[in-house]
Amino acid sequence: MNIIGLDALIFGVDDIPACRAFLCDYGLTPVGVDDDGGRFEALDGTAIIIRHADDPALPPAIGPAPSIRETVYGVTSAADLDAIGLELSRDRTVTWDAKGAVHSVDDSGFAIAFQVTVRRDFSAAADLTNSPGSESQRPVNQVGISPDMPAVPRTLSHVVYFVPDAVKAEAFYAERLGFRTTDRFVGVGPFMRPAGSDDHHCLFMIQTPPHMQGCEHFTFHLGSGTEVLLAGRRFEQNGWTSFWGPGRHLFGSNWFWYFNSPLGCHIEYDADMDRHDDAWSSRQAPLSADNSQLFLFTSREKWAPTGSPPEKRGEPG
Ligand SMILES: [Fe+2]
């Protein structure tokens, strides 16, 4: 079906100005945003879209506002939309909008849509590393970092759902939409990628009691672990609160830093995710702190080695 990943996530929110400030500080670019919401785009055109929670054009909400209202996947061609529409119409309502996108629901009740992808080619510098024992990536005399180093979302990476039945939810994406399970937390849920993407996952599902169903978090890829640290640091300095991180996950190998948001879920910065194809054998492990990350840091105020750290001098940290 050539599903290549997430194109957009649509949220119904109750505080458009707060969400606008949050998504702009996160690093997304507002496109056509007004008092009723709009798009916030990464470098490749993938986006978060916000609307008033009571906008009648939105699919029904699963829980109280603010909440995710639709997950939009990009596909390669209109023929893929025909195939998906035909498959899903076997047992559920499928609608086609004026732009040719296909809308339906998954087996957990999340609204899903498919469109010919809006992803556009873009160019952004890689974060080059000098690693003794391997050929240096960075040319001599080229510095690695600077205070104005860009650290912006490049492409929409993944969404995480709380689901009431992870086995049923996984079966829908695997059997009806051709997703592959790359790894799994036993008794919790699968990391999945669509067949048209080699990213470790664009969808992770976590089994929870039914009343918790909803979006747990979403994230965009940045260019490197350094960019995750830099973007997260700037985000914190804008007053947004860290929830988990920075650190590096084991499954997927991606760097992470999670923040609280006014969208009804957490938001993450991620970078340097593993890529897989069908030769990969999925791993499984129990969910635990050790299996959730290789390491975890806590952000600190800046400091210089001219004396003891501030708290050791009895000053506020
Ligand atoms: Fe994540």
TrEMBL record:
Location of the VOC domain: 155-272
Record flagged with keyword Metal-binding: yes
Record keywords: Metal-binding
Stated name of the protein: VOC family protein
